[in-house]
Automatic annotation (TrEMBL):
It comes from Demequina lutea. This is 3-oxoacyl-ACP reductase-like protein. Gene3D superfamilies: 3.30.70.2390. Keywords: Membrane, Transmembrane, Transmembrane helix. Signal peptide: none annotated.
Amino acid sequence: MPSYPVDEFDNSLSERSPMGVHRKGKSIVMAIVAPLLVFIGAGAVAYGVVVYLWAQNGGSGLPPLGNIAVPTITQTAVVGPTDGLVTVSPSPSPSPSPSPTPTPTAEPVHHDAKVVVLNGARIAGLAGKSADTIKAGGFTAVTTGNMSSNLPKANTVRYSDPIYATTAQQVATLLGITAVEQGTTPEGNISVILVTDPAK
């Protein structure tokens, strides 16, 4: 087979890299180191920018790391359908205040009531003198009499019906008698039974 001297075409073919399936694969180390170098470079550039801004604001030396803004992560709570509902407890019902007991109304003084003054002290003119005192108090139906049996131990004013209780008390006050009771009255609505002189 004839041989030919090596020319420029032969040299260009020998300098070419393998083609097709014969191409060499990338190194694993370069696949790891390359991104790492890019990350370090980006961090250095960012720090350089911070240093520059720090110096522009009048800071001296290296800026403190605490001044570098750190992104804040905010957590937002998702409220479910039943979350956030406020349970309102029913307020206790106020206890009803007791109704005030009505005060019984006192009966008025009946100045037209029949008042009988009975002398049981056997002192002459005692019934008439006491009757005059009662009349001076505004009573218009006052009479006198004597009583010798079933005498009380002290001067007493008796009334036949509760409606005359206030009236009997008024008569007793006029004569200075303290004993006032409901009972049987021989005559009239109120009986004044005298066993002593109430003026003494």
